[in-house]
Amino acid sequence: MQKNEAKKSNENFFMNLVRQQMFIPILAVLLLAVFNLIADPSFFKITLGYNSAGNPVLSGFLITILDSGSELAILAIGMTLVTAASGGQDISVGAAVAIAGSVILRVLCGGNSRPEKLAAPIIVAFLVSCIVAMLFGAFNGVLVAYFKIQPMIATLILYTAGRSIAAWINNNELPVISDEKFTYFGEFIPGIPIPTPFFIAVACIIIIFLVLKFTNLGLYTQAVGINESSSRLNGLNPAFIKVMSFVVLGLCVAVVGLIKVSRVSTINYSVIAKDIEMDAILAVALGGNALSGGKFNMAASIVGAYVIQFLTTTLYKFNVQSDALPAYKAVVVIVLVVISAPTVRDWFSNLTKKLKVKEVA
Amino acid sequence: MSNNKSSASGSFAEKINNLTDTNLLLTITIVVFFLMYIGAIIFQGGGFLKAQNFLNLFNSNAALIILACGLSLVMITGGIDISVGGVTALVSMCCAVYLDFKGGNVFVSVLIALAIGLAFGAFQGFLVAYLDIQPFIVTLAGMFFARGMTTIVNTKPFNVANEAFSKLKMTRVIIPGLGSTNRKGVYVDAYVEIGVVVALLVVIVMFCMLRWTKLGRSFYAVGGNQQSALMLGINVKRTRFLSHLLCGLLAGIGGYVYFLHVGSGSPSHATGAEMDAIASSIIGGTMLTGGVGNIVGTLFGVLSLGTIQNIVSSAGLDQAWWTGITRAVMLCLFLVVQSLVMARKKK
User: Fold this and answer.
1) Domain count of chain B?
2) Alpha carbons within 13 A on the beta-carbon side of B150
């Protein structure tokens, strides 16, 4: 009898663990880690070296994950809010990053494509790009909230035009910034061996958690996502909250734009942040958040973003070509959505029930 | 198309009010297309007057017409499929590899194209209809899978050197009476490529299917309201599955027509074709919310996009980014018009 109870509580503990939203992303990390450990333990090696400027820098696959995953984590913050509020995803983030980056370069160069010195302080350029990116976010948001267009279709407009607009901002030129300070945001600050994007991401994460804790943003967003009309009856303004979530995503996009252009000190309109929308959506999905809106778990999305980068880096390590990456990621997406589909879950729980009945009999 | 009987004596506003959603959107599309084409003739000069120039609109957009037909079908049923561009690239790459490396015959390559299209359609349709997963996510994954697979099959773009295929590719259908004399004074016949014939056949078959068959009507019913379609005894799941399956099949056909037009395989083929196809469907008056749409409108949607491209290129603007911007503006306008039409319905 006692044994049976112990078994039951054990089972309950296991079921609770499985039900936790963090379960899937953490399980994925563990699987990837074990896989890498078996395949090639050198994956986990971190070395301290010196870059061309003579600054100490850490390098290794794990550092790459922290570095590139940070951009994705920042985008995942905004994407989670948009997903929760509107029940759809923004597919224009890649194009919007191109626009934000282009604006930064335009302000910094002031029309001259090879400036000797910067035409404006970096902070000004960044603020301008924030405003532009938030305006584009608001444009998407208005289409979704007031014109009632499905988010993915509404953002399709910017997806189609975004990179063209980005090129147009700089007259289709490719400005190059020679100021070394500009590279600090995407690479390393002298003396600190950890890549800067990681610190930026941590700052963003802290801000969003403070906002979620001390304001009603999270509650209202979920309310609108779960049931729009009843949230309106409760005195919320669903349209405003939807637009708001897109504006927040715009802010995230501006931050990522800064990191992206800072990495290379220039811009390539058709390549910058290519396919990043897929990764951002995937991060949200991997975090166990319902893609049809409603409840969300910000921490899970952020972990999800790093997991995606973990996967990407692992694939790169095994010499998968960058163009072939989407095929593998697509398989992961399909497996994820199939596992989390309500129909499949029902079927699964029915199956376990049947098994239990058999056991009892 | 318009509703003449009841509004013969009514004012213009009444006439518009009496149109159904489908016909109103269709009318807007056709009017916009003709305005644009006439505008192009006036401002860009005689080039647009030549019959061959008009036919080239079909020649270069035959594949897009087929893809857009498939998308309209899915969108009428209330879903969406953004994998068609990827499938097109995969089909052309696989056929190119088969024809070039294996020296196979053309007939088998057509079968390969159809099989790829059907496989994508069936898998995506199953996930969407029977497992109830959001179509956008499923087909987004499908698109990335197809693009990735294209690279895995072969990394580098290459031209096909297969005699039978080249013969088929160069087959042209001459249209009598529309030719013109060129600069040297030689009379040149007006022609269309074989893909255009396929595209027009697809348009006709789809039009008839959607208008007069039970299956066609059930697509509209499911897209309009799933619940009431279920009450009417329509097998909603099966209908949604079939819409994706047919779209996949059309993507296969469209992919082969595209391949026939370009005659090469490349991972960057048909980039953004899904977006063009969606845009054409929307411009053609297919509602994203489902239940409203017309294949004829879709045809005009594709032609409108093609005309924009021609105008942009003949105006000497930098093509790649002006096309993007003008298309996006047009898409935006039509989306807003649709949402206004929806608002009108609610009143």
Assistant:
1) 1
2) 32
Chain B residue with CA closest to A328: the answer is B145
Separation CA A321–CA A285 (nearest Å): 24
User: Is B198 within a domain?
Assistant: yes
pLDDT digits (tens, 9 = 90+) for B280-335: 888 888 887 788 888 988 999 899 888 888 887 777 666 667 777 877 888 888 88
Q: Would you say B284 and B64 are in contact if contact means Cβ atoms under 8 Å apart? A: no
**Token digits for A148?**
């009632």
User: What is the CA angle B84-A341-B272, rounded to 5?
Assistant: 20
| CATH code (residue B233) | 1.10.3470
The answer to pTM > 0.90 is no
Instruction: Give the DSSP H/E element, type plus range, for residue B193.
Output: strand B187-193
Which chain B residues touch A89 with a CB distance below 8 Å?
A: 136
The whole-number pLDDT of residue B319 equals: 62
B105 assigned to some structural domain: yes
- The owner of tokens 């802010």 is A251
List of residues 6+ apart from B270 with CB closer than 8 A: B63, B85, B86, B88, B89, B92, B255, B258
Closest CA to A122 of A257, A249, A274: A257
Q: What is the distance between the alpha carbons of residues B223 and B206, in angstroms, rounded to a whole number?
A: 17
Looking up tokens 């608002």, which residue turns up? Answer: B343
- On the question of pLDDT at B6 being above 70, the answer is no
Expressed as residue numbers, the domain containing B79 is 22-37+55-346
B153 vs A: CB within 8 A:
no
Question: Which of A83, A91, A156 is the best mutation test for B, with the most CBs of B within 10 A?
Answer: A156
- Residue range A173-195: mean pLDDT, rounded: 82
Whether B12 maps to a domain, the answer reads no
Residue A246: pLDDT above 80?
yes
Full DSSP string of A168-200: HHTTT-------GGGGGGTS--TT--S-HHHHH
Cα→Cα distances B241→A227, B18, B69, B215, B248, Å: 28, 34, 16, 12, 11
The answer to whether A291 contacts B141, with C-beta atoms less than 8 Å apart, is no
Q: Are B61 and B321 in contact (CB under 8 A)?
A: no
Whether B102 maps to a domain, the answer reads: yes
Kindly provide the ipTM of the predicted complex, given to two decimals: 0.75
**3-state SS, residue A354:** helix
Q: How far is CA A2 from CA A7, A38, A253, A264, A357, in A?
A: 8, 40, 56, 64, 20
φ, ψ for residue A45, nearest 5 deg: -75, 135
Hey, is A164 helix, strand or coil? helix
